[in-house]
Amino acid sequence: MDITAQTFGPTLPMLLDELSTCCFVALDFEFSGIAKRGDGGTSRPSTLQERYEEVKTSADHFQILQVGLTICHEDLKEGIYTLRPYNLHLSPIIDDRLGVERHWSFQSSAVAFLLTHRFSMDSLFRQGVSYLSRDEEIKAVFRVLEKFKRPEATTTIGVDEAETESLAFLQEVRRLVDEWLALGTARGSYLNIPPASRPGAVESPGIMSVELNRFQKRLIYQLVEVEYPFLKAIGRSAGFLQIVDRDEELEKTALAQKLESTQKRVWEQTGFRWVAEALAGGDLTNLPQDYFNNRWAGLHKPRQQLNSDQIKRRLRATRPVVVGHNLFTDLIYFCRCFFGPLPDRVEEFQSMIHEMFPVLMDTKYMATHDCGSINPTSSLQDLHNKLAFVPYPKTKLASQHTKYKAHGISHEAGYDSLLTAEVFIKLSAHLRDRGADEKPPPSGKNTKATGSAPKPGQPASAESHTQLVEHTTNTYMKLRTDEAEASKRAAHTVIAGPPGASQMVLRPSDSIVIQDRVNRGQLIPRLDAKFWSTYGNKLRVFGPSASDSRVCRSCQETIVRRQYASAATTQGTPETTTAPPSSAFPVVKPTHTIKAGVLLSRQPQITRDLTDFEKAYFFYQRRLNERLTLPFTKYFYFKRGTPADEDWKRKIRERQTAARDIGKYNAYSKDAWNDELLVGAVESDPAHQVEMLVQDAEATVNATSQDTSKKEEVPRPFPRWTEADEKGDDKSLNRALQRTLYLLVQSKEGYWKLPSSAVEPEETMKQAAQRTLAQAAGVNMNTWFVGYHPVGHYVYNFRKPSSELQGEKTFFMKARIFTGQADLAGNADNLTDFKWLAKDEIAKYVRPQYYASIKNMLAER
After folding, report:
1. How many alpha carbons lie under 13 Å from residue 783 in its C-beta half-sphere?
2. Dihedral, 701, 706, 710, 712 alpha carbons, nearest 10
3. Beta bridge partners of 232
4. CA-CA distance, 159 to 151, in Å (whole number)?
5. 3-state DSSP call for residue 167?
6. Residues 769, 786: Cα–Cα separation, whole Å
7. Is the pLDDT of residue 102 over 70?
8. Which of 251, 258, 396, 733 has the most beta carbons within 10 angstroms of its beta carbon?
9. Alpha-carbon distances, residue 617 vs 622, 629, 662, 720 (angstroms)
10. Cα gap 839→599, rounded to integer Å
11. How far apart are CA 580 and CA 565, in angstroms?
12. For 553, left (φ over 0), alpha (ψ -120 to 50), or beta?
């Protein structure tokens, strides 16, 4: 549903009512600009504080242009989640009567991106919903107070003695004021300056102009303040001033009236901030009652009259779970846009966010948590596409919210918020058992502990799970609250439980039916599940990194691609419960040890040997070229009768052609057509051709040499068959120059394999492979790892699997060697031998099952 400036009024009560009864709300924004990472010429990763400052600075300059809001209600009886997506533009314009200016800018790349996705800039100004931040509200009220505030008493008027015209003007004003005061009780209630021709007004001799300019008005204000403090000068729109008696009570009354009118105008201008206040637990006391009356009856269909007091009480007592994709950036922009300037320290921002939003869920963190360097999918659209086939939990769009039912609108805030809501529902049910055996991230230089873990067995409610707090500066930010704050929030809930559980359907339940549906993946986990302690109140700041790299979920490309049977057992399912297919929601637990393998290769050094057909074909091409080219013009190169000319004649008689590598052949004779060789002829052999070229060169060198006693030899090419080939030295890299060689190592048990070892905590797959190669074959090799993704894998299942592990999975990273040699001396893996082998040679050493898994990674030559 689109909300415009015209429909916002009648829609607001419905929005607030839905927010007060929903189980969660999904947010998404489109900005006029975003923060861009600036590394300053260094590869050092940014800290959490540095990234916060980048986004905070960006939020100071840029603005939220479009807001997407999807409100979700849970039907426990039917097991269906009803979604109501809203989409609206935010108007950047403020009522100029408030006297507050709003400064913001556009980023060219951001605008280009929005326009590419058919964003309407015209709708921003014509249909945008107005809003006023808390900071702007304070400025508007402060401006009124400043206007009515009496300035500090001054003792002088800022006019120099040389300014004769100004002095004369002041003298005339004094005369007028003194004459008016001399009338005593007979004087009128005011004095106009300059005096106009009005009945009862004091006439001026004509020294003043008909209309005062700004400088003259300022002089009159200063004169009255300095010399007549019991009087007051009031400006009038007709270009003159009125002098009246100062009345303190009247001034207080005028100030009160002005403040009241300004405050009412502020509350009317607040607009969408009322929704932001409802989400953040703000004060809705001053929400105008006009929104709940029939003021907009002509603009909207008749609707049920909503009780404003009841809605406000529910919103004060409960706050829904707030869901977003990349919430870290969204919350910074949200708070800056609707509330005001942000604190300088990220720790202060954490506390502020905790106060506003007790329960936050970042779907980007959920999708990338604990996934290591496998680079899991984190794009919102990709996640939604891969979760679309999952049948449970069931979702539907409300009857009046079918804009995106037929097709979505990519990068429209309302549509993206709908995707976020659907992804959260499917992900939360899929990951419901994650975190039961969760270990806290290891402490280190990139981890800062700021809280304590919950006690064993304690329910991971929205309050208690946030006590497990440490934030990793390289990946994500956790939010924190203390015991006193938890007690304070709990006192505001109507029913005991997590914050917001009094009205939220996610509250813990003792119902066997509900718990069974949660176990089957039909419902979102309740707030007492350990799922919330693992994924709740953690915001993804950077992408997955080494500090978050326990490669879990079987190195998933996506979290729902596999179709396993659920391990959740059924406990007395009632007859009315309909069980979903057992393959819908896997319980993903590590079943194999993850290992990193190294496919280290030496590339071919020379081209391969030609086949007999290729030799004959290329030889035929050279003879054919000889027939098609012009004859060799010998007299252009050789002078008649010279030794060079005689040498040329001798050679042409022997081979009948100028070419030196095509044998005896005359391309211009009547037998030139006979240019093919007989079977077994040596002329097509490259070795014979090389020998003929060398002999020709030696004959030329020796014929022209002055020292005929010594025969000179021309250097011959290196042989294609090396000394290592002759000796069968399979440890040498100077063998099988036409083939790709791979490093194989022998374990202490006698098995041959590619180097591999288990991935350790804090490692990416590439880092583990680099460490494995150094530990196995030493560091005296110049190697290069080709990429960050494995090129293949091998699965080994134990013959007698344990209760926890069934085997090992080895993922091979491709690498190449340029110089150096393997050295097993002092290796950490107890390896006994190594070989450099080609693909067909590897098959003779490794086990058949192992070779079947790796053969497709190996080059044929």
Report:
1. 28
2. -20
3. 244
4. 19
5. helix
6. 12
7. yes
8. 733
9. 9, 19, 12, 21
10. 12
11. 11
12. left
Cis? peptide before 393, omega within 30° of 0: yes
- 355's tokens: 């106060």
Residue type, 689: Q
Contact 246, 230 (CB under 8 A): yes
Positive or negative, the CA dihedral 195, 197, 203, 206 is: positive
Place of tokens 């070779």: 851
127-185: pLDDT as tens digits: 888 887 777 777 776 666 666 555 555 556 767 777 888 888 888 888 888 888 888 88
Phi and psi at residue 650, in whole multiples of 5°?
Answer: -65, -45
| Structural contact between residues 464 and 404, judged by C-beta atoms closer than 8 angstroms | no
Name which residue leads in pLDDT, 500 or 825: 825
Calpha distance 748→645 (Å, rounded): 72
Instruction: Among 418-432, 443-457, 535-549, 785-799, name the one with the lowest average pLDDT.
Output: 443-457
Cβ-proximal residues to 553 (8 Å cutoff; 6+ apart), any chain: 370, 371, 559, 588
Cα separation of 160 and 170, whole Å? 12
State the virtual CA torsion across 498, 504, 507, 510 in degrees, nearest 10. Answer: 140
Calculate the CA dihedral of residues 494, 500, 501, 502 and round it to 10 degrees: 30
Position 545: which residue type?
A: S
Placement of tokens 């849970």 in the chain: 74
Tokens of 658: 């100028």
pLDDT confidence of residue 733: 93
The Cα-based distances of 768 to 164, 376, 760, 789, 790 in angstroms read 89, 18, 7, 12, 12
For 608-668, where are the E strands, in sequence order? Answer: none
Lowest mean pLDDT among 565-574, 647-656, 757-766: 565-574
How are the residues of the chain apportioned to helix, strand and coil, as percentages rounded to the nearest 5? 35, 15, 50
- Which tens digit of pLDDT belongs to each residue from 339-351? 888 888 888 888 8
**Amino acid letter at 389?**
F
Task: Tell me the percentage of the chain whose pLDDT exceeds 70.
Answer: 73
pLDDT exceeds cutoff 60 at 505: no
Give residue 682's identity as a one-letter amino acid code.
V
Neighbours of 764 (CB within 10 A): 20
pTM of the entire predicted model: 0.52
Q: Hey, what are 278's tokens?
A: 């409802």
| CA 120-121-123 angle, 5° bins | 70
Q: What residue type is assigned to position 579 of the chain?
A: A
Position 793 confidence tier, pLDDT thresholds 50, 70, 90: very high
Per-residue pLDDT at 740 exceeds 90:
yes
Contact 308, 287 (CB under 8 A): yes
